[in-house]
Structures
1.
Amino acid sequence: LNKPEWYLTQVLMWIGNHAKFLDEKIQPILDKAGSSVNAGLEFSRGLVMLILEKLAADIPCLLYDDTLFCHLVDEVLFFERELYSVHGYLSSFPSCMHILSEESCFQRWLTVEKKFALQKMDSMLSSEAAWVSQYKDITDVDEMKVPDCAETFMTLLLVITDRYKNLPTASRKLQFLGLQKELVDDFRIRLTQVMKEETRASLGFRYCAILNAVNYIATVLADWADNV
């Protein structure tokens, strides 16, 4: 259960190792018979069906172990990326995202994603470098004077988007968007709390850093507004 990468990587290897044989030996036979079947894709589809069976059996066994469950999700997402980008798998075919979209699994994924995101926010705001810009010494890069915590937070949101963008249904994607909105509001509250501590020094370093953070986040969210 703690090594899903073993069978996921094995399947990717099988697909890669058989590609030339299927393309050069099997595909011409299908073409000659007038079939529209793509040998490589059908081979991939058959192996992915085995993966789906394996996942359906494994997920109930690790649903409440955060570490194992997170590791499984990470490995499945990596597997999916490789399958589509390297091996040309079709989005109309069955995929692991359908398993991750099933109610009990999906709700657990959302819960765990939120838990780890909040932990990340705790650590980024308690860091000594939270209010310092990573690029403070490079003037042409640092026009917005973005503090480290704001940049890390937006990267966190971007990573979450990247993880859920291939979910098969809009309703599931919207639930993840709801999580992101919660996180933005949580971050806003945290900034407000820090700002209240700094009101006596409204031209102070940290107060200005908070304003820069808010401006940066608002600007980036506006840029993302075109991303359906």
2.
Amino acid sequence: FSFRLFPLREHGMNWRAKPLSCQEIQAFRKSKEVMDRFIRAYKLMLGFYGINLVSEGTGELERAENWRERFENLNRFSHNNLRITRILKCLGEMGYEDYQVHLVKFFLTETLVKETLPNVKRSALDYFLFTVRSKEKRRELVHYAWQHFRPQSSFVWGPRDKLQKYR
């Protein structure tokens, strides 16, 4: 039996880890202890990436004090992108869709607006964006990405005509 910090209903890189069943997810979500541990694990991983959870109520995030050295690590080692994708999917499974939105927007802002994480940009656009469960929130994030992507004519993550008319 292999334990996963951010379990999913699909196989990951650890072939010994058994995917979660829908019943297990429901049991986890009903357990205050499990959900408290889940948030602690999320905060721990955010800290590793140089990010602070500002509000447990909303999922709002900010850069941590040590963000420069942690972002250097994120830029150097692309395996972190797989872990972030897994965390995002798990947030959705555990009912933290708002947390998903904040984490994806954080990475879109850092990659496209502040340009601090150039080596995370493709993962943010190709994978992180599409983990967001809410279709409406995902559309908002795609639009946000399109607004900040340069050159805008090379943006391939949504239909240009719809992006121009959005809102």
